[in-house]
Amino acid sequence: MNRIQQKLQENKKLLSIYFTAGYPNLDDTVSIIQDLEKNGVDMIEIGLPFSDPLADGPTIQASSTQALKNCMTTEVLFNQLKDIRKTVQIPLIIMGYFNPMLQYGVEAFCEKCKEIGIDGLIIPDLPVDVYSEQYQSIFEKYGLINVFLITPQTSVERINFIDSISNGFIYMVSSASVTGSQSGFGTEQTDYFKRIAAMNLKNPQIIGFGISDNKTFSQATEYAKGAIIGSAFIKHLNSNGTRSIKSFLQSILIDKK
Amino acid sequence: MSYNVNEKGYYGEFGGAYIPEMLYPNVEELRQNYLKVMAEPSFKKEFNQLLKDYVGRPSPLYFAKRLSETYNTKIYLKREDLNHTGAHKINNTIGQILMAKRLGKNRIIAETGAGQHGVATATVCALMGLECIVYMGEIDIARQAPNVARMKMLGATVVPALSGSRTLKDATNEAIRDWINNPVDTHYIIGSAIGPHPYPDMVTRFQSVISEEIKWQLQEHEGRENPDYVVACIGGGSNAAGTYYHFLHEDDVNIIAVEAAGLGIDSGESAATSVLGKEGIIHGCKTLLMQTKDGQITEPYSISAGLDYPGVGPMHAHLAKTGRAEFMSITDDDAMKAGLKLCQLEGIIPAIESSHALAIFEHKTFKPDDIIVVSLSGRGDKDLDTYINYFKL
């Protein structure tokens, strides 16, 4: 069983953190992953920076631009992560846009992920139909879980299709938005969370976009298996540096203690 | 071989819709409806009426006598420069604004580089009384002040794109993000034959009026519908797509696509995507694009703001790959000279984009009885500052 699937079976709400590899400094990647695990994070999304990240808001784009300036590349990231499984046990997911993977070679990329011990991928601009027709068999060959997004506008039929070809979790985008543009959830969102929870999908859901603090984390995990924090963590790194990861996570997980 | 889009949205191996799930409902709504809407008699009637009375179509097919004598061949200019707002761009924005209205959208967004598409969008929004937001790179806003003023006068809100390289590709990213954030009431008017399916096909169809007119106009001039060559400049490729459309499957018509070589193909400052680009994904479609080895999209360069886009439309990528079109690239210097030559020989000041297409006559020899139709995609008023600086006028 894949580490993601194992983690999803644990009887707890999961906290997943997104960060951009190579930010704030090129060589921060490994120490950030280790610190996140040490301080109670259940799963990590490692962002492979891209020049034109369509689904991301200004915070994550700025971190990607900085990471690229720091000379982060696909090759550099794989090198940084080559010994990561000697120290880190929690599931690791690479989140990136499709073009850099296409240039690396999709099969070569997947093979490298397996070799390193990456458990899954999130590729926002690889649509589910293209994936199922052209790439699913490659992902499966290397034991990688591909995670798809759904939004409040996704039709029931399409959600069921996505559920049928997913084998880990479904990434539930909290609202019609790019990353980092929400503050707090209203009834529109909680109604949507309830609607999806009531569908009893085969795959558990993890909510992302708009989770920034203890309150939104608790709200989201009331309806879903877990929640993902991205922009808020990047902002925190930006203002407080990598030494403050512990305090950030304590503020999120405050009532778990 | 088909050069049209297939039912899945591909031209050969290029095209498709590589979009985040957040965009899927918007794009899918458009995909399901665009052909149906375009086929409605009331849509056709309104579209054609506006092209005639508002845009000023048909645009003339002009036999450029002195230019022809100079190069010892027969050159016709398709005068898109005489359209309202000064370029071919308006053909597409008229079509898309009518599409948006029929889909019940009341808010329009667009991206713009030099501002030509932004002006054409602001124009049709004013015409229809719809809200208009135009995304434009911060750097482009600074260097294209007159077009920014035009858009404002027409009632549009111009939003600076502050991310990435702060030019056209980033303005496009920002417009796409706006659409993600406003999935219900907003239509995104893409300005070129790029983007996720069905955009390249829809934009091409709206621009195809150019080649439709060339056919009957050439019949009037020469007693034949097909020229020996059709020539157009290519940035994203919407004027080219419209110029080629009705000739794509006519074997006796040669197609020439002219890209901007900037300071030279190997100078590092170029926009010649068919030479320097590689297959990849940009703004929702698979096509040829300029990128690093690592798959990061790079910033192109051309003296012409309308040609410095790092990709080409997927239809053009297919035309390049199959060899259906001959791709040529023209440097800044050659384009500027060709522009000035047209002024002096024909009394027409062309847009610098179009000057690239005119410059091929210095590099390629045609037979005296060859008939060549060149798309004069826009007029040069907007480029006056560039001409002034270049020629020290």
TrEMBL record, chain A:
It comes from Yeosuana aromativorans. The lineage of its organism: Bacteria, Pseudomonadati, Bacteroidota, Flavobacteriia, Flavobacteriales. Pathway: Amino-acid biosynthesis; L-tryptophan biosynthesis; L-tryptophan from chorismate: step 5/5. GO terms for cellular component: cytosol. GO terms for molecular function: tryptophan synthase activity. Belongs to the TrpA family. This is Tryptophan synthase alpha chain. It catalyses: (1S,2R)-1-C-(indol-3-yl)glycerol 3-phosphate + L-serine = D-glyceraldehyde 3-phosphate + L-tryptophan + H2O. Keywords: Amino-acid biosynthesis, Aromatic amino acid biosynthesis, Lyase, Tryptophan biosynthesis. The alpha subunit is responsible for the aldol cleavage of indoleglycerol phosphate to indole and glyceraldehyde 3-phosphate. InterPro entries: Aldolase_TIM (IPR013785), RibuloseP-bd_barrel (IPR011060), Trp_synthase_alpha_AS (IPR018204), Trp_synthase_suA (IPR002028). Its EC number is 4.2.1.20. The active site is at 45 (proton acceptor), 56 (proton acceptor). HAMAP family: Trp_synth_alpha. The gene is trpA. Tetramer of two alpha and two beta chains. PROSITE patterns: TRP_SYNTHASE_ALPHA. It is an enzyme of class 4 (lyase). It holds the Pfam family Trp_syntA. The keyword Amino-acid biosynthesis applies.
UniProtKB/TrEMBL annotation, chain B:
Its EC number is 4.2.1.20. InterPro entries: Trp_synth_b_CS, Trp_synth_beta, Trp_synth_beta/beta-like, TrpB-like_PALP, TrpB-like_PALP_sf. One of its GO terms (molecular function) is tryptophan synthase activity. NCBIfam families: trpB. Residues 56-378 form the Tryptophan synthase beta chain-like PALP domain. Tetramer of two alpha and two beta chains. Belongs to the TrpB family. Its cofactor is pyridoxal 5'-phosphate. Signal peptide: none annotated. It catalyses: (1S,2R)-1-C-(indol-3-yl)glycerol 3-phosphate + L-serine = D-glyceraldehyde 3-phosphate + L-tryptophan + H2O. The modification N6-(pyridoxal phosphate)lysine is found at residue 89. The beta subunit is responsible for the synthesis of L-tryptophan from indole and L-serine. This is Tryptophan synthase beta chain. It is an enzyme of class 4 (lyase). It comes from the Bacteria. Pfam families: PALP. Pathway: Amino-acid biosynthesis; L-tryptophan biosynthesis; L-tryptophan from chorismate: step 5/5. Keywords: Amino-acid biosynthesis, Aromatic amino acid biosynthesis, Lyase, Pyridoxal phosphate, Tryptophan biosynthesis. The keyword Lyase applies. The gene is trpB. GO terms for cellular component: cytoplasm.
